[in-house]
Structure formats: C-alpha cells, structure tokens
Design goal:
Blueprint (H helix, E strand, L loop, with lengths): L3 E9 L5 E9 L5 E7 L7 H12 L3 E5 L17 H9 L2 H17 L3 E11 L1 H12 L4 E5 L18 E6 L7 H14 L3 E6 L16 H19 L1
Parallel strand pairs: 3-4, 3-5, 5-6, 6-7, 7-8
Antiparallel strand pairs: 1-2, 2-4
Helix pairs in contact: 3-4
Amino acid sequence: MQTVRTERIEIPVADGTTMGGFLCRPEGSAPRPAILLLQEIFGVNAHIRSVAERFAREGYVVLAPDLFHRIQPDYQAGYDDIGASIQLAMRYAAADSEADLRAAVLTLSTLPGVRADRIAALGFCMGGRLSFVANGVAPLRCAVSFYGNIAPDKLSYAPTQSGPILMLWAGKDAHISHESGRLAVDTLKKLGKPYVNVEFSEQNHGFFCDARSDYDAEAAAQAWALVSAFLQTHLR
C-alpha cells in the first residue's frame, strides 16, 4: 500500500466558473495512472474522500471534483435526509455537467505525475451516470459506473464512448429499473462498444457505500475486486 497525501485544488471551467476538487495521490514523483472520481448527489463527502484515498493507496492519482460548485460550493451531506441533495441534483444542468467533466479531465491530465494517456472515470449513482457522460466527451482509457441511471437520457453519449466501461447494478435497485439498465447494455452492444455488465441480484442501490443503510460488505468486496482488476487491465 502506498502512503498518500491530499490537497484541495481549483479547476477552471470553460464557462468562467472555478470548481473545487479533492486531490489524493501517492507519495513520490513517478508518473501514475489517474481516476476521475465522481460523487453521488451527496457531494464530495467523507465517503467519497475515503474512496479517493483507498484508490490512491493502490497507486492511482485521484481527483474528486465538486460538481455542485455553481449551486452550493463544497456541499457535503449524509445519507439520512436526501431531500436537499435531490433538489441540488435536479438543478445541476446537463450542459454544466458536461463542461465540468471536460474541465476535470483536462486538469487531471495536466497535473505533474499523471499519465495523461491512462485516465479513467469512476462514479456512484449520479456519478455513475456522469462517468458514462465523461467517457463520451473526453479521451478516457476506461470508465466504471456504479448503479448509474444511464438510460434513456444519457444514451446520446453511447456512440462516442472512448474506452471500455464496467457497469455494476443492484438487482433490487428501487431507483433504476431493470429495463433501463438493459437498454443501456443493449445500446452499447448494438454499437459495438466494449463493456462489462455485472448485476448483484440481491443488493439494493448504494450497496458499495459503508455509510448507507443498504451497504452490503460481501457485495462491496466483490465489486472492489472486479473494479480493481478492470482498472489494472486498462490503466497499468
């Protein structure tokens, strides 16, 4: 395991705004692959920061951008009362998210010690959805989507997916229908885009997050192993 350090950085966006970011990286100056880590609707909270540090200990440079920076900068919330987080997510415009993703990838690719040709996007829930978008608008090596509600409105990014995508679903997800997930998979298949599709049949939405009531330790451990192997294959 690597020793890691963290810092806050500022990311210029094409619309003139500035987006904050939580950067976590292993010690040392050796060039490393990188991960754009995309938040849930709850912001770059303690859980997202812990995931960033976990990946950094595995040898990746990780950037978690503050996607709600225009609406409520540095927003962080818990998982008990989701009303305010849902309202913020509803106000986060698609055009703004695309601009933010492009800016975050560009900033990450130009950081010292980052291999610009070895960048992945990885996200959870809203972030899983946006990982699909990032893979469609930026030159990424691969992407990972944890229970991201991709279909139907984000399928316009399917033809431009730049790298293979790993999609992980919860079979008992109350927020994403089986039909929606199937549509995302079928669309990628028809387009000849490389993907890996995994469903955890007995789990609920958010099963990877140990701060949520639906956390499932066994499924989370299996998902981590799958994601680690997928990233190792495409980033190393």
